[in-house]
Amino acid sequence: MNIVLIGMMGSGKSSVGKALARKLKWDFFDIDQLIETEQKMTVAQIFERKGQEEFRKLETEAIRKTAQFDRCVISTGGGAILKDDNWKAFAKNGWVVWLKSKPEVLLERVKKSKPGTRPLLKNNLSLDQIQKIAEERAVGYQKANQIIENDAVTLEQIVNQIAQQLKAKGALT
Ligand code: S3P
Description:
The chain is α/β, with parallel strands linked by helices. It has 8 helices and 5 strands. It has helices spanning 13-24, 31-39, 43-50, 52-66, 84-93, 103-112, 127-141, 155-168; strands at residues 2-6, 27-30, 72-75, 94-100, 146-149. Helix 1 crosses helix 8 (155-168) and helix 4 runs parallel beside helix 5 (84-93). Shikimate-3-phosphate is lined by residues 9, 13, 32, 43, 77-79, 118-120. Residues 9, 13, 32, 43, 77-79, 118-120 line the site of shikimate-3-phosphate.
């Protein structure tokens, strides 16, 4: 089984993913990083040079590949919930966890991160834009197996909540 983290940009998927993988002694993969390594371009460059549609194809391919792994924590990009093919890959062996945050919190986190890395917010880094994207995607994120509200909890608490759930499922032996 793999743990698949989903959620909006700035929801903490990479930080939580790394900490969780460390705790479980599982491998960690970040879908955006896998694409960047393979394409030898940043996500922003792929959006610019090839367009969003092509990025989504690369994303689906990377998700499909990671579904063949086992005992991995996989951090996805915020739009990974948009395609049925991605859900098919998650369903193979994934425990999908949505890191749910309020738009206000997402905005602050994105503002603190490296500028220019998020093409969907490049021309409009605002609460309105984040709210709009979050609303469009809410139905997709809600398909997760586990939902964690991560606005007022520590990284350690989130990691423990996920680990406890896996233990209860008998996935941690
Ligand atoms: C995207 C989120 C980004 C990255 C790309 C598209 C999205 O990842 O995959 O810019 O559609 O929400 P993060 O969620 O890690 O920022």
